[in-house]
Amino acid sequence: MAWNEPGNNGKDRDPWGNNGKNQGPPDLDAMLRKVTSRFGGLFGGGKSGGDVGRFGLSIALVVAVVVWVVSGFYTIREAERGVVLRFGEYSHNVDPGLRWKPTFIDRVIPVDVESVRSLPASGFMLTQDENVVRVEMDVQYRVVNPEQYLFSVTNADESLSQATDSALRYVVGHTRMDDVLTTGREKVRQETWQVVDSIVEPYQMGLQIVDVNFLPARPPEEVKDAFDDAISAQEDEQRFIREAEAYAREVEPKARGSVKRLEQEAEGYKSQIVLKAQGEVARFNELLPQYQAAPELTRERIYLETMEELYQQTNKVVVDMPAGNNSMIYLPLDKLSGKANAVQPARPAGTPAVESTPPSNEGANSTPTPLRGGDRFSSGRN
């Protein structure tokens, strides 16, 4: 049943309170005056009402001021710097600690200036030799100027990402694929870092690049096996080179030592020969006056000394028997020298015995000498 439907025991449900009388909507002006009169009594309508109103207003103002003051306190962490905006315009920076700002007047934006941020960059890129390679790079940076970081560009992080991608594509486009995959990775990293710095510097974005990590590049999957073989061959080449260098480092000092030893031996031999020759000259110079005084005697002595030296170097002795005896005795001194009792050689009946002593290294006495007057050694002279 509707609210204004007749019935209900003669009672209408008129929301305007007309008790069934059709008087139209309520007067809005009358309602406003009624509300105003009520609040006027609260804040000053009459003597007692005015005191109560002023007290309430004071309390409300004090509470509002306290809330406004308390809401202005804020904290900047140790790793952050605060950028203060006054009525939306940059004012100054604040250091870490407990700070206060006038609410609704200043606005503080904290910016982390200590943490190192990471920005990845990757994609398929075309190399100088027209090959496609997938390259991945990670740029690490931090904020050094909060004001420039917030207001120099619309989004400093996005701008750095675009600059990194542009620099990486430029460097890879001027590098051969083999260098990107193997030996030229460090060069690509350094050049990319330099190009990114040159792009970012004019914009003054308040960022500082800390490091650039060039991750391992990969060829397309279709040619991955062939490139793996090529990389393996290059690694073997480097391994053989290192082994050869190690062998050279091992052999070269030995060769230098051998050369030095031969040089020293040659110098020693040279000195020995020179000194020996000088000694011979001095000996003959001392012998010359004696030869001039007694030539025959001197020649005989020199001859005997020479033969003595020759017989000291042989292990065979020939004994010349007396006249009329055609036998010849051979003494094997090389076999007899190590025995305590020398074996007497067989001799014909009636032949006198001959005793011999093994040679020694004591000058002329080392030559075997006959012990019988009738025997003598064959010396080449009669």
Automatic annotation (TrEMBL):
Keyword Transcription: no
GO terms for cellular component: membrane
Domain Band residues, every copy: 71-231
Keyword check for Chloroplast: no
Keyword entries, A-Z: Hydrolase, Membrane, Protease, Transmembrane, Transmembrane helix
Biased composition (Polar residues): 357-369
Listed Pfam families: Band_7 (PF01145), HflK_N (PF12221)
Subcellular localization, as worded in the UniProt entry: Membrane
UniProt GO molecular function: peptidase activity
Recorded topology in the membrane: Single-pass membrane protein
Main location: membrane
UniProt record, GO biological process: proteolysis
Gene3D superfamilies: Band 7 domain
Superkingdom of source: Bacteria
Region span, Disordered: 1-28, 341-382
InterPro entries reported in the protein's UniProt record: Band7/mec-2_domain, Band_7, Band_7/SPFH_dom_sf, HflK, Membrane_HflK_N, Stomatin_HflK_fam
Subunit structure as annotated in this protein's UniProt entry: HflC and HflK may interact to form a multimeric complex.
Family label: Belongs to the band 7/mec-2 family. HflK subfamily.
Name of the protein in question: Protein HflK
Lineage: Bacteria, Pseudomonadati, Pseudomonadota, Gammaproteobacteria, Aeromonadales
The gene coding this protein: hflK
